[in-house]
Amino acid sequence: MSTPITELKIRTIGDPALRRNAREVKQITPRHKEILSKMARLMYERKGIGLAAPQLGINECLIIVDVGSGLYKLINPKIIKKEGCRVMEEGCLSVPDTYIKVKRAKKILIKAKDIDCNSITVEADELLACVIQHEIDHLKGKLIVDYASFLDKLKLLGKKSLINKKNARLSKPKI
Ligand code: NI
């Protein structure tokens, strides 16, 4: 039995649901429409700008995005063209209190299905492109922490003291 839609909650890092490869949706059902609506409610409640179904423990290729220019509900989204690159500091509702610089394509072209099963393409750049790529990462079990530099990782582990010690060692002449 699947979890009732009313009980769906945003999973956080450490939950294995965030690390699976999401399944492609073969047939769009009323349940998918309900899930997408629930996702939108949760995203707005939490002041997010994007959400992917695996974040609710649903292992299917569904994402939503709203960067202020309207809500996109995308089923089976695929990037078919990428252009340029841009680094942006990203957060994630599933990785609380963490911001990591992520390098992504600046402009993308997406192929997906809408909730009425129409094939659509979406051209996105800047923030919209960044958020769509972030959500597509969720469908592959990838999180922002996977982009963390060595220094970011140390910070995440709360090992700032280690960095300080290393710097102290470097600044002292070897005798
Ligand atoms: Ni996220």
Structure characterization notes:
This protein has 175 residues and is α+β, with helices and mostly antiparallel strands. It has a domain at 5-86 and 104-140: Peptide Deformylase (Alpha-Beta Complex), CATH 3.90.45. The protein contains 4 helices and 7 strands. The strands form 2 sheets. The chain has a 5-stranded antiparallel β-sheet. Strands 4-5 form a two-stranded antiparallel ribbon. Strand 2 (62-65) and strand 3 form a beta hairpin. The longest helix is centred in the N-terminal third of the chain and has 16 residues, at 30-45. It is globular. It starts with 29 loop residues before the first helix and ends with a helix. The relative contact order is 0.16. Bound molecules: nickel (II) ion.
CATH-defined architecture of the domain at 5-86 and 104-140: Alpha-Beta Complex
- The structure class reads alpha+beta
> Main sheet: which strands, in order across?
1-2-3-6-7
CATH H level, superfamily name of the domain at 5-86 and 104-140: Peptide deformylase
Bound ligands, each once: nickel (II) ion
Uncertain runs are: 168-173
Proportion of residues in extended strands: 25-35%
Shape: globular
- Element pattern in H and E: HEEEEEEEHHH
Beta strands, count: 7
As a percent range, the share of helical residues equals 25-40%
Summarize the main sheet: 5 strands, antiparallel
